[in-house]
Amino acid sequence: MPREIAVLDAYMPTIVLLFLAGAALTWFVDRILAFTGLYSFVWHPSLFRASLLVCVCGVLGLAVYR
Amino acid sequence: MSTPSSAQPTPSWSLAALYEAAADWAQHDGRTWIYLFKALAAAFLSLAIAMKLEMPQPRTAMTTVFIVMQPQSGAVFAKSFYRAGGTLVGLVVMLALLALFPQQPELFILATALWVGICTAGAARNRNFRSYGFVLAGYTAALIGIPASQHPDGALLSALTRVSEVLLGIVCAGVVSALVFPQHTGEQLRGTVRARFSSFVEYVGMVLGGRIERAQIEATNAQFIADIVGLEAMRSMAVFESPSARLRSGRLSRLNSEFMAASTRFHALHQLMNRLHMASAWSTIDTLEPYFKEIAPLLRKSGEPVLSAADANAAATQLEAYKTALPKRIRATRAELETTHPDAPLLDFDTASELLYRFVEDLHAYTATYASLAVMSHERERWAERYEPKTNLLSAGISGVRAAIVMCVLGAFWIATAWPSGTTLTLNAAAICALASSSPNPPRTAWQMALGTVLSSALAMLLTFGIYPHIDGFPLLCVALAPFLLLGVWMTTRPKLAGYGVGYCIYFCFLAGPDNLIVYDPMSFMNDALALVLSMLVTAFAFAVLLPPSSTWMRRRLLVDLRRQAVSVARGRLAGLRSRFESGTRDMMFQINALASEPAQKRETLRWLFAVLEVGNAIIDLRRAIDTLPHEPRYAASMPWRVQLRAMRDAVGKLFETPDARRLDRALIATTDAIAAVQQTLAAFDPPRAERHQLQRILSHAHFIRSALLDPQSPLGEMAAPGAPASSTTPSPPQGASDAS
After folding, report:
1. CA torsion B14→B17→B21→B24, rounded to 10°?
2. Do A35 and B243 touch (CB under 8 A)?
3. Angular region, B418: left φ>0, alpha ψ -120 to 50, beta rest
4. For residues A44 and B483, what is the distance between their CA atoms, to the nearest angstrom?
5. Which of A16, B299, B557, B728 is 20 to 30 A from B659, comparing alpha carbons?
6. pTM metric for this prediction
């Protein structure tokens, strides 16, 4: 994947867009996990969620920088 | 800083006592300390990142942290969400203004003043954190725009970096408060909901058992109102915090609204019984008394008090069974009463039994919703009615106009004198106007912030010119900043010092916040400090003298608004009307109490609240009952009894608008006429059973309104002339043949 993408003729780092997508994806996954009740078994739900965000964004970032 | 907790009377150093003292400390002071260090950590984190990224003003990020930081993570998220939104809106507006008036400072200041005025009015109109979005939309616009207007060529870039600094501060505050020893609003919410259910059950038990004083009833109800407003605020924060709270959000707001309905109904029932006692209507009281005794045990689970949402299921089932059986039993009792006491006023019995049934219904709904909280998702979640916190439109408008005037005055001063610190002067006036007018007592808040700023200027001077030259490196910088910032954050945790603390924290960072390349310029530092203090003083002065809604005046206005609520229910859609009415009225009451200083004033407001709630609810019930009647000519809106009912509604409305003895008389006459007209309709048409019950219900609602107007304990009853027929609770017209059952 290219490292920069032209959005409306302005160059943007691809990972900015990827991280936005990652945040949306995490939110979606988070809702599903909350609905299944998984969070009642998690020690620190906020930490879990923050880590989930980092993991998702990191994996997406691999698509560009690898 | 910390007060010695749980003093030990004897020097017995047993392990248990020590443990107890430590637990107590951790419970109270420990939390404060954790919060202090969380705030510091978030501030230093944002400072470090901003410096590493070589942002032009790392201090903006640090200031943002102190603006959004709150002890509970839900509150931080809510505040951050609105701050981010407000910042972006402010950015867009300011870019537009900058593009429109790059060469005309006068027009630019005017347009900015207008925008700040609008935002301040919005902040005063809304409550909770939504108001914060407005504050920030105005404040950020000034923060970004006014400095950028000095260099129109670099305005876009400077505005964008300012926004990214603000967003960095928000993210740091959110991350630290969620990850490091988080204090969840959700837990507090659970505790409040549970405690309120228990205390309501206890209250119901005590009142029905007749073991409660008037003063205690008032105190308990005032507590309930504070709880209702608090719960709504907590719910709106907890939604941001965890998915489990989000899944329950609808039920929580339903719980709140059902609780309001149940407590109003219960109070109405209690008042009615009091009036019957005063009128010595013993036959009615004796027949109803056994029912009251049955309610309290229903709220227990096999004799034990209900402690958790899961236990409430049993109580809900019991209540439902009781509710289903109730109408039949009441009809039997009524028939019995008719045979044993043929002269007893059946209207009183009908009114009381109708209220009892409605109360049981509301109580069942409340209990069932409470029980439903135990599970993750539930059908009771579907709830469209919303809580309505809104402040008085006039007072919000006044805040907006005042903010605009202050901005214009300071802007004119800036343009006239070409003071280099004019930017600071104007932009802080905007910030303080907005921040203060969303607080309960704006003049005091503005004044406290000004004093906090004076203190912060002195200390910032000491830090900048006394300590910064001797240190090197980020760790030392943190060490140097820590004691100064700790003092400010600690002040924000004490309710009495909060205003000082906010001013101190924000402006300490503004003045002494380090940049990557520190410029030691005492002249501009002092100019800035002077501008800060000056803008605060002007704002505080404006709050005190300009368009002064003194708290007494404001309180009277709000009291009129509160009374108007009783009239407002006569119009508007019926769907969701009750919950709009109940929440709006209580919220207004809460605002009035924030302004009241003496307990006597608070008691007066509370009594008005009860009068408004009783009459307003009766009018809603009346409208509902009329709505469900079939479409037949005899129930048409032009029929005399409907006309009489409308006349009653108007007379009562006028009475609530400006209460006096003459209007009270007129309202009473109108009510009596309406009751007579409905009774006549009942007698003349002899409608089928279902419709007759409906008409009897209408009759009992009208009768209830009449008895509420006559209540000697309500502020209306006091108004009655001494010779008025305040002793009778039943109207003079005979019950007539209508009551053949």
Report:
1. 150
2. yes
3. left
4. 31
5. B728
6. 0.74
